[in-house]
Protein 1
Amino acid sequence: MDKFSVERASKREHVNSSSNPPHPRLSASRSATEVISKAKRRKFSAEYKRKVLQEADACDRGELGALLRREGLYWSHLVKWRRLRDEGELSGLAPHKRGPKAEAPHPLATKLAEAEREMARLRADNAKLTLICEVQKKLSQLLGVTLPAAVSDDESSGSSS
């Protein structure tokens, strides 16, 4: 080993020494590949929102900060909850479902989807049957067997009358 590789090895040992604390998310009981659970969004009930708003309205300016710290809330929570309260006491403070609103399906949409599925199934069946017919034609040509001519719809309808 040359002089530089010895110095690099000693630097690595110094960096990895026990004087540096381990990463806070990694401990002896957890492996490096363990999945840590994801934080969940907090949901506040309408009753809790009303209670906090009543306390906030009764507070002086200095007490309001203490209330927010005690409850673990932000000023934006109060602003939003006050706006919702002014819109309507119960409906504004009820928890809202996140995401896009579900639309009522069009009455013909189910029939259209069913017809499209049926057409796709029939197209797949047609492709299979076409392949089978082509294979039968090639096989008859290889074996030298002549197949009877296909009867067209015009001929079959004309002969039966």
Note: The radius of gyration is 38 Å.
Protein 2
Amino acid sequence: MALSAANLEEALMALCKQAQVESFKEDYKDLEANRALSPNSSLLQVQPVLVDGIIRVGGWLTKAPGHFEEREINSRKRWRMAQALADMIWRRWHKEYLPTLTIRSKWNKEQRNLKEGDLTLLKTDDVPWSHWPLGRILKTFPGSDGIVCMAEVKTSNGTLMRPATKLCM
């Protein structure tokens, strides 16, 4: 299913609104109720306005902007602010929205059960994954549903009992 430009725009606006509601909860409520912002509001300096459920900054536009000075166009400070905002949006999008798009097939699709003779990595929390020990399954212990929940694993350091969640095939 392909998304149209309208679908993407709608999703972007929903994301923007959700981020604003979470970040500026009290200010959003005040703007929604047409009340003045509290004196210690961080939005006070940017003259926020609520338009279609989205906080817009700069107040209401009363006339079209005039000409700009060359120094205003090339302002390094404005560029840094724009970059910081873009970085913030990217981080939040990457952290909050992008994971909702992934399909978690690991939990929806049947995987092969562990069996005797399988070569596995033993997941240990105190070392990085590149240093996890290698082992061979000697014996499996299935649960009532038939899926292996424990295994006896032989490593170079001896034989260990490990839960299946700590074994990587």
Note: Confidence is low (pLDDT under 50) at residues 61-68.
